[in-house]
Design a protein that fits this description.
Elements: H1 10-39, H2 45-65, H3 73-83, H4 96-108
Helix pairs in contact: 3-4
Length: about 110
Amino acid sequence: MQVTDTDWSKTEKKIAQAAFEQAYQREIAALIQQVREGAGAIASLEDLWQLHDFLSARRHEIDGKYDYRYSVLIFVFSRLIREGWLHLDELAGLAPDKLTKITVLANMG
């Protein structure tokens, strides 16, 4: 079975949605905190443009990372675990084969 051919049960979809949202909220909260801290250090127009460029890059990265298509969720979850935004135990209840694939992929990076 290929990773993209994986079926998701109704229960797994609920677990996946909750984990996905939790990771997203964590990353957004961290970004907001980082911007709050950095905004206080803006002393010039160049600093302002650097903040703009940083936010544009982060928006592009986050928009690309948080893809909730079931065909790519295994990859998304493994990346989020590798980056520390999600914990494997938050995916408890997914089928063992999905958890194994996520774990293996998370450890590859």
